[in-house]
Amino acid sequence: MDQNSEPIPNRVAASKLITFDLEDYYPKGERVFLDIKDWLFEGIVLKEKEFRAQVENHSWDSYQDAHVAMGCSSDAIVPGWAYMLLGTKLQPFARSMVLGDLEALESHLYKEAIQNLDLSSFKDKMVIIKGCSKKPVPANAYLWITARLKPIAKSLMYGEACSAVPLYKKR
Predict the structure, then answer these.
(1) Do 111 and 128 fall within a single domain?
(2) Range of 16's domain?
(3) Are 109 and 68 in contact (CB under 8 A)?
(4) Tally of CB atoms within 10 A around 103
(5) Are residues 116 and 159 in the same domain?
(6) Which residue, 110, 98, 103, 101, is CA-closest to 142?
(7) Residue 13 pLDDT > 70
(8) Could you report the per-residue pLDDT of 74-113, keeping only the tens digit for each?
(9) Going edge to edge, which strands form the sheet with 17-20?
């Protein structure tokens, strides 16, 4: 570029668009799946006495500050009380827990994070909900943040400033 030419203005940077990146709200902490399949007789039958013995002998402190998803990877029919029992043991250690897989856990964590956000700074603003992320952002998180921002924002878009997809515009 020669000295006489003007710099090319960055219209995206100069716009009034605010980017909302769900990745910024990625809940910290280790994620663990507690699979009870090996605690069942032949991996499919829960025998109460043996199951309770497994629960009592398990090292629960290894879940300190972890987010725990619990379930059974076999096709066993597990009574609800079994997971409730696990919950009583996990509660003093785990940061959070859900019944389901790691994807259900991630959705749960994001739902909590989104529900607790102060979104007042987005009032009457043009907001782009960023689409790409390096961390695992569940699809539900995009629905939840859209529902939270719609009553507040002037407009909502999805993607990047250079190629945003319009979602909503206040009339």
Answers:
(1) yes
(2) 11-27+107-169
(3) no
(4) 13
(5) yes
(6) 110
(7) no
(8) 999 999 999 999 999 999 999 999 999 999 999 999 999 9
(9) 17-20, 126-129, 155-158, 165-169
